[in-house]
Amino acid sequence: MSDHTSPAVKEFEYKAEMKQLLDLIVHSLYTHPEIFLRELVSNASDALSKARFRMLSSDEGIDREGELKISITVDAETRSVVIEDTGIGMTEEELITNLGTVARSGTLGFMEAMKARQKEGEGVDANLIGQFGVGFYSVFMVTDEVTVETKSAEPGAEGRRWRSTGQGTYTIEPAELAGRGTRISFTLKEEYKEFAEEYRVEQVIKKYSNFVDFPIFLGGKQVNSISALWQRSKSELKEDEVNEFYKFISTDHQEPLDYLHVSVEGAVSFKALLFIPAEAPMELLYQQGALEKHGPQLYVKKVLIQNECRDLLPEYLRFVSGVVDTEDLSLNVSREMVQSSPVMSKIRQILTGKLLGWFDTLAKEQPEKFHKFYKAFGPIIKIGLNTDFTNRDRLIDLLRFETTRTSEGEYATLKEYVGRMAEGQNEIYYHAGQSRSQMLAHPNLEYFRKKEIEVLLLTDPVDVFVIPSIFEYDKKPLKSIEKAEVDSADTVEPAGERLGEEVKSGVLGLFREILGDRVADVVESKRLVSSPVTLVSGKDAMDSQLEKVMKMMQQGQGMPSSRKILEVNTSHPIVRNLAGKQAVGLGGDPVVRSAVMQLFEGALLLEGDLESVTDYVSRMNELVEAATRAGN
């Protein structure tokens, strides 16, 4: 070790935020101390990737000597650890930027995430440290002082030694180093001495870093696989190896639901290994723009070009992770060139077709696996119906729905629905709502259930945007049951006798007069069997469930509710009683008027559109009081 007081030694102070970060890491991340090794190896791999990229893509002067590798040396007696790489190295300015400044690497974002978790009473997640690029500092969990010796690969660069105890300051001084790269050395605290044992270090490397794209040597022996799995033929792939590779590139702790191996040669050539996660990450469904942060890695000639390449797949398929490797792009391709490249456009087109074919095969050959997949990613895939018109028909065939004939949790396709349609049925009917039980109890379904006509039950909020846009399937129009016109000749015969024309006209007029402009119209219902009234949308009106979703969304704020048509079951005892009162001149009776309003607001309540529950309950109490008084 060099003398800390040498005149060439320069001392720097960490910024205040960096002090907070170091304190947080040292005192809060003790539950997963082994991640320090994962992070240091990951940083070494990044440095090697940059060096290899420069060597392959540029003729500019760069130190090209020596093998690209990571070497780890440990000594159980002295508890010392040394991690070296022959990567791109750092200049003094880069040392200050990378290891001493908060502005780099999302440190503030990391601390905000930590504080949020602690505020909600959650534990500190060690895995977050890698996501925010602050992994180097995890070494301070296991040691009291770190020395970093580095030499940039730039021509004429001089070596530098960085040293810190993580207590608020660090020093930088000149160092005589032979070749490019970085050497990190430290002595482990007594309680972490296990990481000075070769067997333990090898365990951690195989767990987290087995597929790092460069050889990792431990005590002179290579301990990682570094096999580009996607370059192998499908028959050579072993499931355990593939699953571990998925965990490595995705940082998902679960095994994938399934994987697809792709090898294409022709106008464009590429190989790919793609994965469906077992579950949809929460942010995919609930965070706007989250899909932009997902997607497969793009390699060119086995060299990583882009970590999450959003241009490889359409947005609705970006939950698919993995690797795509082509030789048809140049290594120094820019982000803009990637976006506009006809090669990328062709790869995207082929991959999309392969993935949709894969999903279809899963549905036919492994229905249980497809069921899990669809439950997790169905809502995201539906986005493609209104964006990917080339594959629209294939996407429609992937759709699955609960129906009035399926059990809860079981799905049917549109093809299966059409195959079950009775002779004379010319439309595919659907009903949208918040839950299956709520939809099955809805009055608008009574006619269809009585006639044993199957109805699609749409509970996914995305459905109300995408299903109406299908318009028709197999030349059968898709129609919401609240807009469906029930044929007069096919009306369900009511339990009671229908009212005569004059009395019926009188009671419908009474409803219109009391409800006024709260409804678009009041008509006799041909669809109700056991309920007195229901609300339906006009032929050209917005579907009620879509209207609800629009109101919930930001652009729907202040959006007035559209007026509905009130359908009245003229054979229902309540309606017949009201008709009798109207016929003898009692239409102005407060109880009659309250009853009409209560029927209307009861229908609003079923729709989830009742504004004042208090008024509704208060009126109900008045009606109950009147009924009990009349009985005395």
Strand-residue proportion: 15-25%
With strands numbered from the N-terminus, the spatial order across the biggest sheet is 1-6-5-4-7-3-2-8-9
Total number of helices: 21
Rg over CA atoms: 34 Å
What percent of the residues sit in helical stretches (DSSP H or I)? 25-40%
Low-confidence stretches: none
Q: Estimate the global geometry from the Cα principal axes.
A: elongated
Which class of secondary structure composition applies to the elements?
A: alpha+beta
- For the record, give the distance between the C-alpha atoms at the N and C termini, rounded to a whole number: 103 Å
Largest sheet: 9 strands, mixed
Give the overall pLDDT as a whole number.
Answer: 85
Description:
This protein has 632 residues and is of the alpha+beta class. 37% of the residues lie in helices and 17% in strands. It has 21 helices and 22 strands. Strands 1-6-5-4-7-3-2-8-9 form a nine-stranded mixed beta sheet, with helices on one face. A five-stranded mixed beta sheet has the order 10-11-14-12-13, sandwiched between helices. α2 (35-57) packs across α6 (198-208) and α20 packs across α21 (613-631). The relative contact order is 0.06.
